[in-house]
Specification:
This protein is α/β, with parallel strands linked by helices. The protein folds into 2 domains: about 300 residues, Carbon-nitrogen hydrolase (Nitrilase/N-carbamoyl-D-aminoacid amidohydrolase, 4-Layer Sandwich), CATH 3.60.110; about 325 residues, 3-Layer(aba) Sandwich (Rossmann fold). Helices cover about 40% and strands about 15% of the residues. Strands 13-12-11-10-9-8-15 form a 7-stranded mixed β-sheet. A 6-stranded mixed β-sheet has the order 5-4-3-2-1-14. A 5-stranded parallel β-sheet has the order 18-17-16-19-20. Strand 2, helix 2 and strand 3 form a beta-alpha-beta unit. Helix 9 packs across helix 14, helix 10 runs antiparallel to helix 15 and helix 17 packs across helix 18. The radius of gyration is 30 Å and the shape is elongated. The protein starts with a strand and ends in a 32-residue tail after the last helix.
Length: about 650
């Protein structure tokens, strides 16, 4: 289903050197995970015997029992297509290796020997095991090295696996514990070779601060590899002679931690996450350096899984309804400050490079122009220039309401900028007469005349004042083409061009709270108050007359659909190349309690149609700073023909 697969990692209760007990617990917990939809279940390093057996690893009895346990585990899942990864000591070619074994449909599919063996401080793995480095280089014919195991036959020795069958291709790379901690982890090369999921069977002991460091390693490696990383570590029932283990379980996807277990559980812990392999595959086509690597040799050494069970229903995955908005409340100030700093740095450079004393901005009393003015005001502080060098123009037209007009005036006064009012109605009526348009016909011409009149005023006053026009349009409007060509579509520097509407709202809300907290006296409280009223005002271009009560009649979201939905679609379409079917599926999951399917479908049709048909506006948008991972600038991230068809997307 749309490339989703459920992965599970387990830290089981165990008894050191008691293979029968451990095998029963592995089968029990793996059965529970598979019954819960897991396509791939990962256990810790040496889980069949326990990691802390020490010199017992040189006992024939333990080695024979652990191998018999492996066959028993495989047989227990002979009717399942799930892959079970377990750890055990395994003799290969006359030496003993710390191995991950992969079983599916009752068969031992492959074994992966550990490459890097820690042999310092509390670890002494080289006392018992050999490195699998040479074995993983493959056989003489270029394929994986084959080892013959009693009662099994020939088994590939490899750390790379592909899935046979159709759908989003899952390619799995395997590491064992220390492999991750080395300067050049095997997972890096495996990812370049095509692995989009890395599994790590681990036994990492608990030390002060190590959990955080371990988490950072997993998240960073998943980001560098642009892959999912499934990590399972040994738990508290390992021997505590010299060490304690916490049972750390983690599943990360491209730098984001999807799930993490609580430490020091005394019960068997199973952690689940629904991994979007299709998204990883699509992202690799447009980002990273994966296209520069020859993966043919790695594919030749790959073992093959019969196929993984696709997911039928999302359960262990959070899909944010506002993917552009920072999710952490704790980091709100940090993230908004960083965004603000990027915007201000870009504008400061443009003002200096253009030798402009003044920034000229159209102030409507709406969200976008409010954020733009706040950015301009902060930029002037940064440049140590007086605020009154900023020129804000309010240009009331046929649809301007008292509420937005008053908010614009109040905001300008509180920020100390110069405010001028230019009423555009007379000029627009003259223009209607000049072009032969009936002003009672409230069509697109009626609206666009007002928008272009405002831009003409801004540009001409900027010329006369030796300044530049600062654009206010946001990323959502750019995506939907919700601007008048060569009007609000145009400026000399667009500070909001990479900020979608949901994020604009978030930043203005943050600035309001910040003002109430940091600004001294009544000014801070007044600024917070006007910003909050602007946040509560319906989004509107105010190009059509107000209603009988003087309230905004032309509400953008009543026409287009909620910006929250459009921003959601934009994120998944532009960043991950999601199909419309997948976007709708994710939206239904993310907005289950807020929007119905009919509303989501309607908004999706509007998004697709407008995104494709309005590309001609994006092909010539002004300069502006890239802030997030998605930009629609033709000079940066997004290039597409202005006249392409879009019926396949509908």
């Amino acid at each position: 289903m749309f490339g989703f697969y459920r992965f599970a990692c387990v830290s089981p209760v165990l008894r050191v050197a008691d293979t029968a007990f451990n095998t029963a617990e592995i089968i029990k917990s793996a059965t529970a995970a598979v019954s819960n939809g897991a396509a791939f279940v990962v256990f810790p390093e040496l889980c069949i015997t326990g990691y802390t057996c020490s010199d017992l690893f040189h006992q024939e009895q333990l080695l024979e029992k652990s191998f018999g346990s492996l066959l028993q585990i495989a047989k227990a899942f002979e009717d399942s297509d799930a892959v079970i990864a377990v750890g055990l000591p395994l003799r290969l070619f006359g030496a003993l290796y710390n191995c991950a074994a992969f079983v599916q449909r009752g068969k031992l599919v492959a074994v992966t020997p550990k490459t890097f063996l820690p042999n310092q401080r509390e670890f002494y793995e080289k006392r018992h095991f050999s490195s699998g480095r040479d074995l993983l280089r493959g056989g003489a014919q270029g394929g994986p090295l084959l080892c013959r195991l009693e009662g099994v036959g020939e088994v590939p020795v490899t750390n790379f696996f592909t899935v046979k069958g159709e759908g989003s291709e899952v390619r799995v790379g395997a590491e064992l514990c220390e492999d991750l901690w080395t300067p050049v982890p095997p997972s890096g090369e495996l990812a370049l070779a095509g692995a989009n999921v890395i599994v790590n069977l681990s036994a990492s002991d608990a030390l002060v601060g190590k959990r955080d460091y371990r988490r950072n390693l997993v998240m960073n490696q998943s980001a560098r590899c642009m892959a999912a990383y499934v990590y399972a570590s040994a738990g508290v029932h390992e021997s505590t002679t010299d060490m304690v283990f916490s049972g750390h379980l983690m599943i990360a996807e491209n730098g984001s931690l999807l799930a993490e277990s609580k430490p020091f559980s005394r019960e068997t812990e199973i952690l689940y996450a629904d991994v979007d392999v299709q998204r990883l595959n699509m992202q690799r086509l447009s980002e990273g350096s994966f296209q520069d690597y020859d993966s043919r040799s790695a594919y030749a050494r790959a073992a093959i899984f019969d196929g993984l069970r696709p997911l039928e229903k999302l359960q262990y995955r959070y899909v944010s309804p506002t993917p552009f908005v920072p999710s952490s409340i704790e980091n709100r100030d940090k993230s908004c400050t960083e965004i603000f700093n990027i915007q201000c740095a870009g504008l400061a450079k443009r003002l200096e490079a253009s030798h402009s004393a003044r920034a000229v901005i159209g102030l409507s009393g709406g969200l976008d122009s409010t954020l733009a003015l706040l950015v301009v005001a902060e930029t002037y502080k940064l440049l140590k220039r007086p605020a009154n060098q900023i020129l804000a123009l309010t240009m009331p037209g046929f649809g301007t309401t008292k509420r937005t007009r008053n908010n614009a005036v109040t905001l300008a006064e509180l920020l100390g900028v110069e405010l001028r009012t230019v009423d555009i109605q007379k000029a627009c009526l003259q223009h209607f007469s000049d072009i032969g348009h009936d002003p009672q016909t409230l069509d697109v011409t009626y609206e666009n005349v007002q928008a272009r009149e405002r831009t003409q005023i801004l540009m001409d006053i900027a010329n006369s004042e030796g300044g530049i026009v600062v654009g206010t349009g946001d990323l959502s409007e750019i995506a939907l083409g919700w601007s008048t060509y060569n009007a609000d579509h145009m400026s000399m520097y667009a500070v909001n061009c990479d900020i979608p509407k949901t994020l604009v709202r978030h930043i203005v809300g943050w600035y309001a709270d910040r003002s109430a907290r940091l600004e001294a006296g009544e000014n801070g409280a007044a600024l917070a108050s006007v910003l909050k009223d602007i946040l509560d005002t319906p989004v509107s271009p105010e190009l059509l007359p107000a209603d009988e009560g003087g309230q905004i009649a032309q509400k953008t979201e009543s026409i287009l659909g909620a910006y929250e939905i459009h921003d959601f679609y934009l994120y998944h379409f532009a960043k991950y190349g999601a199909t419309p079917e997948k976007m709708l599926f994710l939206a239904k999951y993310a907005f289950a309690s807020k929007f119905g399917e009919d509303e989501l479908k309607k908004a999706l049709a509007v998004f697709v149609r407008r995104f494709f048909t309005q590309q001609f506006k994006r092909s010539c948008i002004p300069d502006g700073p890239k802030v997030g991972t998605i930009s629609l600038s033709p000079r940066a991230d997004w290039r597409m023909p202005s006249d392409s068809g879009y019926t396949d997307w509908l």
